[in-house]
């Protein structure tokens, strides 16, 4: 196997993911006016950064020999808990609410 083909085979999942992202972004830009802008692109990346962090964490747990797929449930519970705190006006300051949500996530997490 040549060096360039081994690089390509290692990077294939990343390239396919990027191609799908670009295809979906361009499709949405075609159907929705104002979607094709740098601001929307940056918002898509920044608002979903926690998913990348969670995916890296899950990958490290799986590589270390333990298989723990409960992180999705913990993220979902913590998000709903924080939304409930905000809706019921039980949070007077954002930092306090974040501490409560983080504590509940740690309590329910492994």
Taking the sheet with the most strands, its summary is: none
Q: How widely separated are the two ends?
A: 42 Å
Helix content: over 70%
The residue ranges in which pLDDT falls below 50 over 5 or more consecutive positions are none
3D architecture notes:
- With 110 residues, this protein is mainly α.
- The protein has a domain at 1-47.
- Helices cover 78% and strands 0% of the residues.
- The chain has 5 helices and no strands.
- The protein has helices at residues 3-31, 38-47, 49-63, 71-87, 94-108.
- α4 runs antiparallel to α5.
- The chain is flat and about 55 Å long.
Produce the secondary structure layout.
Layout lengths: L2 H29 L6 H10 L1 H15 L7 H17 L6 H15 L2
Keywords:
flat, 110 residues, 5 helices, 78% helix
Short summary of the structure?
This protein is mostly helical and 110 residues long.
């Amino acid at each position: 196997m040549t060096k360039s083909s081994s690089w390509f085979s290692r990077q294939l999942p990343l390239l396919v993911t990027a191609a799908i992202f670009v295809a979906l972004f361009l499709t949405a830009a075609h159907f929705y006016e104002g979607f094709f802008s740098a601001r929307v692109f940056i918002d898509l990346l920044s608002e979903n950064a926690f998913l990348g962090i969670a995916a890296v964490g899950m990958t490290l747990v799986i590589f270390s020999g333990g298989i723990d797929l409960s992180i999705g449930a913990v993220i979902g519970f913590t998000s709903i808990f924080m939304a409930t705190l905000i809706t019921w006006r039980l949070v007077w300051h954002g930092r306090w609410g974040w501490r409560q949500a983080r504590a509940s996530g740690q309590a329910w997490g492994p």
